[in-house]
Every structure is written in C-alpha cells, then in structure tokens.
Design brief:
alpha+beta, six-stranded antiparallel beta sheet, four-stranded mixed beta sheet, 3 helices
C-alpha cells in the first residue's frame, strides 16, 4: 500500500507543478510566440489569430478580452518607460508622439489588476479624436495620479501599464509592427 501512496503523491505533485507553471505562464503572458517590441511597447503577431495557441488564448482571455486580429487592430502594451524602468503610479510620465498610421488610435492606462484606474476626473485614455496637438502636429500626454486637464491619463498610485490600440492600422504596420514610430514614454518626476 505504501508504494501505491508514494506513486499517488508523485502524480499529485506533478499535476500541481504543471498547474502552477500553466497559471504562471498565463498570468505573465510571456513566451506565447510572435512577440515584437518597439521601444517600450510590445505586441504579439499572434493576438487574435488562428495561429495563437491555447496559452495565448488563455492569456488574452485573462488580460484583454475580445482581441481582434492584427489587420483589424494592433495592441501594444508598455509596462516600462523608454529607459526600461517599470512604470510606477507615484511618478509622472510624459508621452510624446505624432498621429499613428491607423484610422483611429487610443492610449489607455490600466492598473495592475488589468482594469481601468478609478479617478475622480474620469480620465482613462486619450485618442486620435481627443488629444490636443501642438502647431507641429505632435502631442504630449501626461500620465500621473493627477489627471485634471486635457491630455492627461490617471495612473493611480501603484504599478500600471499603458495600452496603445491602433484600429484599422495601415498595412505597413500589420506587416512590420516592430518599426512603427510609436510614442516615447519618459519619466518626468518621481517623489
């Protein structure tokens, strides 16, 4: 009987280890294949495609519901600034760029729980139709706890991420998403 119990405990341990590794892979969303980086922004060429495997589909279900394929929408996510430092809601960031090659685009801040960050100003994102541009066509967006004015998004007080969505991107973006002139994210003050 003890040999049976030892065998059962080995099988149970293997199952638990397998479940833990699967959970960790899904939660981190890494190693799903098709990953592309462009400065601090990253995307997957397999998001919303039939080529995406079970782990990628589970990650999308957990972190980004209803993902469209890359010819309809490309989703870039940044968890670091352009210098490679983790985004921290206690800091202030300046996001600068020009209109992106897509029919419509938006930049949205999400908390560590993958939900919009609650704020009294109800400023969750900026978009092609809401961002204020300078005379040269460039925009500057501030990401900070205080999002009381135009061109600002709230970051809360902890870790956060930024998601850049390009709806109906130019075909060149879908073909080569690693070489798009995406906005820079620069820390502009930390306590």
């Amino acid at each position: 009987m003890t040999l049976f119990l030892k065998g059962l405990s080995v099988v149970a341990g293997g199952v638990l280890l397998g479940l833990f590794v699967t959970w960790l892979t899904i939660v981190r969303g890494a190693g799903m294949g098709g990953d592309v980086t462009d400065g601090p922004w990253r995307t997957s060429l397999l998001t919303g495609s039939t080529e995406g495997g079970m782990a990628l589909r589970a990650t999308i279900a957990l972190h980004g519901l209803f993902a469209l394929n890359r010819h309809e929408t490309i989703y870039y996510t940044a968890t670091t600034d352009s210098a490679g430092k983790k985004l921290d809601g206690a800091c202030r960031y300046t996001i600068t760029g020009r209109d992106l090659p897509a029919r419509w685009w938006s930049i949205t801040a999400y908390g560590a729980d993958d939900f919009l960050i609650a704020n009294k100003f109800q400023r969750y994102s900026v978009s092609k139709t809401s961002v204020v541009r300078g005379a040269d066509g460039r925009f500057t967006v501030t990401a900070s706890e205080d999002a009381s004015a135009a061109n600002q998004v709230a970051t809360g007080d902890g870790a956060f991420s930024l998601t850049l969505r390009l709806y109906n991107p130019d075909p060149s973006v879908a073909d080569d998403p690693a070489h798009v002139a995406l906005p820079e994210i620069r820390e502009s003050g930390c306590p």
